[in-house]
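Reagents: none. Just compute today. Transporter.
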Amino acid sequence: MNTPTLIGSLIFAFVLAVLIGVVIRSMMRGWQRRGELQLAVIGTLPAVPDTVGAPTVAATRGQYLGCTLAPKWNERVVVGDLGYRTKAVLTRYPEGIMVQRSGARPIWIPQDAVLAVRTERGIVGRAIPTLPTRPDDGVLAIRWRLPSGTEIDTGFRADDRTEHTRWLEGDNE
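Predicted 3D structure written out:
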């Protein structure tokens, strides 16, 4: 490789690296700006209680997919750490629903705030095909009302998706 070609290649690589950096920084600023705008709508999350009763629906392992502003299943909530997907354990108690997420703070959904527990085809950019004969194959979506009055959907996909049925039956109790 001759010197002019090497210099041209290095300049191109440098410009490409700067361009990628600018794009990534713009994406991060957009995420932060969206979080600032949503903070007023979301407000503070309910506090996790010190004690709860015996579980009414046993712990279900799976993946927390994020929260969305209801009824828009693709408008992700990015306030705090609500926008990050992570492994989680979902448990229902008489007082509410606990979402214990690895690497993030737990989410407590008080029982009186729960509006619906249902399965959906998708949530927050995650679409899972379902069959009419197996509606429990999708995403478990919990619609609830925040203390600010805003309704959000919390998405969860169980490792064993047949466990979604227990959650749908538990909602009727």
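The mean pLDDT is 85.
Action item: order primers for follow-up constructs.
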